Hints:
By secondary structure, the protein is of the alpha/beta class. It has 15 helices and 11 strands. The strands form 3 sheets. Strands 7-6-5-8-9-11-10 form a 7-stranded mixed beta sheet. It has a two-stranded antiparallel sheet with strand order 1-2. Strands 3-4 form a two-stranded antiparallel sheet.
Amino acid sequence: MQTLVCHSRRKFYKVVSNLHLVLGVLVVLLSLSSLVKLYSAGFILNDVNLCKPFYASKQDLKNSALELSSKLEDIKQQVEEIQSKIGKVVEEMREKGSEGPKVLESERLKYNTLLVEILPPLDAIKLFLEQLRLPGVYLEPENENANGQIIDSFKLAGNTKERLKGMEDFFHIEEIRKYITVKENRLGKKNFLGANATFTSIGHACLSMKEDLEEYMGYDIGDYCNDDWNVAQRLMVHGCDPLPRRRCLARAPKYYQKPFPINESLWKLPDDRNVRWSHYQCKNFTCLANNKTRKGFYKCAECFNLTQHELPKWMEAQNTSSNQEFLISDILNIKPGEIRIGLDFSVGSGTFAARMREFNVTIVSATMNLGAPFNEIIALRGLVPLYITINQRLPFFDNTLDLIHTSRFLDSWIDLQFLDFVIFDWDRVLRPGGLLWIDGFFCTKMDLDDYLYIFLQLRYKKHKWMVVPKKDKDDKEVYFSAVLEKPPRPF
């Protein structure tokens, strides 16, 4: 019986082995047949023309991009309409006096936050699709690489000059087209910077603000520029930064007067005739000092009151429960004789720089003209204004500044990740041993830990640290102030 079973098994194994052998031979024959067909068709010989039917034509891609861009614009409009409807419903219920808005307000904020997060990706996709439609900028399969191999991927076609040529064609105003073209060196040689051409740039968001940018660049060469600084600032704040240079004459105030001498300009309101007031609610410095219009940048409502509000700042201790300011003398005593140059990134009239000048410290004041002529008054006081947005990388080299001061500007309105980029850029320009002075950072108590982490992650040495509640807010909102020292970080 056992012999019969063993014989049956051997017979079965032999059949299976023969079957495997037959299948293996069939696989080899099919492989050889496929290779012969591919060879005759041209695949193995790297015949790129054979693959062309699988790639969309440039015109097809442009048409598809146009269609998708149009659909994205419709979606964006629908999202904005939903935001508007939500706001109207809450407002109507608030007017009726019902208790619904208390619940709806939190829901509105939640859904608005979701909708706002949807809009930037839509804008980014729309901008990319618009770039695909530019002449000279399109998707195509790459050719051979350095090793002669075909790379099965896509790239933006054309070199830098061709891409910029496509950018030229995107705009209609001749001055923009001329500005962004590549300017080759006249002698055809590399300049002292190692480049054989000059590449002028504009902010990437300029593409999405085409009409505003063309309005800004619509002028007669050599003539007076339009009184349009507010258009330029709107472009900068919304990401069209840097702006292109212009070949027109900047308008000056009609009756410009000589500034006051330096011994009196620091604490005296400048002459009203030295500012163009056409785009402001107030038409003189007295109006700003009195805050009559109640408009403009609310955090600096009194910073034009130089003698009463500004003069005591950082010099006298304020006897208030919400005092969050440190004295300049105390900060300079942390590093006696070492604080010489620095940056004040705040919205203000230059008072911090004026006070530091009295201690022989040079401070550059970076600010925008948010509702008032901040840059003008800083310059008229004999100080240095730096007209840049918070979006821009600081125009200072690494490890060069002794001090960075910020007051009442980078508050709870700012996104945490964006603040992270800002803080790391400040760290870049601060020298080892330099001081970061955070002056009155305002946020809710609930968000305090998140913001503190941003400042603490760089492991600066703490010299001063203070968290105080804001008045009349039941301790729900706080001010945070600190003076931190950058570590040396040796290699």
